[in-house]
Backbone:
């Protein structure tokens, strides 16, 4: 015959502060063990949940940053596309400029039965026929077309009492700007007033300046001849419409170009 063990209990005695009597609670040991096992199970479940969901929470916290990075990359990609389009446009403009300046105008020699009379000739700098070589005074009109003089050397600048230095010639943007005389390229730069400009040095202290250009072709320190293309007219700097600012200086002081140039509007 199997003898049944008596159930073990835990005895809890509770006293109240304001009373003398007490209460006694008898709780079976298995109930306490079951509660302790349940508590440990809940703690284990919480630890597992933290272990599994912590990477998900970290990844979720990175989503706003990734979204901003994607937006930045999309913006950068758009800018790259715009730069590529601008580069294509510049290359197309450069090709048109080469054609305007006479690049590739000499045909390749024929390999037919006719003997070659002379070796192929490479196209050099563009010089107006009949102009003297070397350095000369700035006496040539700087454009192929007459243009329209909108402001002379004696006109006052807007909002200023000082006379205008040089002349402004209204001409379509991209027109060829030629050296008024032979000399050395003293400066090739850009500033707030004249935008892109080219400054040439001529003999006897003469200088000529070409401002508001859209493109500078001459290079600093180079030697140009009278009539050689030094840039393209434009609308850069302090300018309200496409035009060329043409200025002649003698010993650093501006002089009226009308007293020197052989051609005019």
Residues:
């Amino acid at each position: 015959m199997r003898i049944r063990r008596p159930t073990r209990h835990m005895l809890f005695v509770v006293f109240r502060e304001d009373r003398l009597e007490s209460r006694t609670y008898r709780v079976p040991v298995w109930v306490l063990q079951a509660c302790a096992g349940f508590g440990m199970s809940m703690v284990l479940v919480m630890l597992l949940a933290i272990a599994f969901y912590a990477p998900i929470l970290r990844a979720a916290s990175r989503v706003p940053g990734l979204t901003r990075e994607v937006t930045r990359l999309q913006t950068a990609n758009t800018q790259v596309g715009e730069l590529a389009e601008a580069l294509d446009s510049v290359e197309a403009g450069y090709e048109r400029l080469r054609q305007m300046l006479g690049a590739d105008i000499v045909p390749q020699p024929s390999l037919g039965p006719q003997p070659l009379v002379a070796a192929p000739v490479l196209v050099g700098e563009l010089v107006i026929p009949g102009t003297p070589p070397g350095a000369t005074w700035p006496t040539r009109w700087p454009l192929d077309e007459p243009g329209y003089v909108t402001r002379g050397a004696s006109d006052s600048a807007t909002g200023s009492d000082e006379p205008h230095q040089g002349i402004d010639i209204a001409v379509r943007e991209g027109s060829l700007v030629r050296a008024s005389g032979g000399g050395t390229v003293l400066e090739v730069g850009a500033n707030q007033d004249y935008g892109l400009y080219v400054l040439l040095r001529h003999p006897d202290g003469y200088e000529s300046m070409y401002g508001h250009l859209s493109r500078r072709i001459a290079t600093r320190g180079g030697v140009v001849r009278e009539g050689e293309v030094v840039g393209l007219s434009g609308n850069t700097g302090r300018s309200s419409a496409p035009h060329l600012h043409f200025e002649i200086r003698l010993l650093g002081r501006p002089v009226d170009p009308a007293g020197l140039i052989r051609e005019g509007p």
